[in-house]
Amino acid sequence: xxxxxxxxxxxxxxxxxxxxxxxxxxxxxxxxxxxxxxxxxxxxxxxxxxxxxxxxxxxxxxxxxxxxxxxxxxxxxxxxxxxxxxxxxxxxxxxxxxxxxxxxxxxxxxxxxxxxxxxxxxxxxxxxxxxxxxxxxxxxxxxxxxxxxxxxxxxxxxxxxxxxxxxxxxxxxxxxxxxxxxxxxxxxxxxxxxxxxxxxxxxxxxxxxxxxxxxxxxxxxxxxxxxxxxxxxxxxxxxxxxxxxxxxxxxxxxxxxxxxxxxxxxxxxxxxxxxxxxxxxxxxx
Length: 285
Prior knowledge:
- The longest helix has 29 residues, at 255-283.
- The chain has helices spanning 35-45, 80-85, 87-107, 114-121, 182-196, 211-220, 240-245, 255-283; strands at residues 65-68, 71-79, 127-133, 142-152, 164-173, 201-207, 225-226, 246-252.
- The chain has an eight-stranded mixed sheet with strand order 1-2-3-4-5-6-8-7, with helices on both faces.
- It starts with 34 loop residues before the first helix and ends with a helix.
- The protein is built from eight helices and eight strands; from the N terminus they run H-E-E-H-H-H-E-E-E-H-E-H-E-H-E-H.
- Helices cover 37% and strands 20% of the residues.
- The chain is of the alpha+beta class.
- The chain folds into two domains: 35-253, Gcn5-related N-acetyltransferase (GNAT) (Aminopeptidase, 3-Layer(aba) Sandwich); 255-285.
């Protein structure tokens, strides 16, 4: 669940240094992973036996369909182990991701590697929701998919740090069902999954320059914001190339975190107000 991803789009096998990087940007503080975070992840990933992969969509049957006009679709959860075994799904997912992303990855200078992408997709910790026409009862011809992980925020930089989150790595919709709200529906479904599994954040990772994702987040999704600190680590520039190539949007769904953040912002606002009052008073002497 904490795999440091490679060239395909998450972690790094290379490093580079840039002077002055990270100025004015929030940095995550490396902390030992609290036991309750690990418990939450285990409960979201496995059934009570601790071995069998858990279908996090099983209790959410009303959300596993999409109907709009003549478009009638069904969603199917697939865990990493089952995905790897299904050659048709692996071929579809890889070829779709390559067709949609290779040029974008190369345009950032980050590059594309077939082996790394396949390895990332076939990792046992990967999770998928595939889209099918509702009439396709045998689930043979997918029309799209979303790939995600249930992990910690720090998994972006290969660290067991941060809070539990649903990290969305990829979303691909076939042209025949685009612009109908399917992508929005899938992301809202994963937000429901995150709430139900007691995660603290929903995070979306996207290659820079992906206008489709930028538009989706800004126009269709609520309470997501650009997370400038997602790839920044203390005393390390190992992931600079990721910060150059990717953006991360995040949404906090943890009431305790939101409350603490609001209280901190109130204190900061009060401090600024007092400072301005003192400055005005001193200027009037």
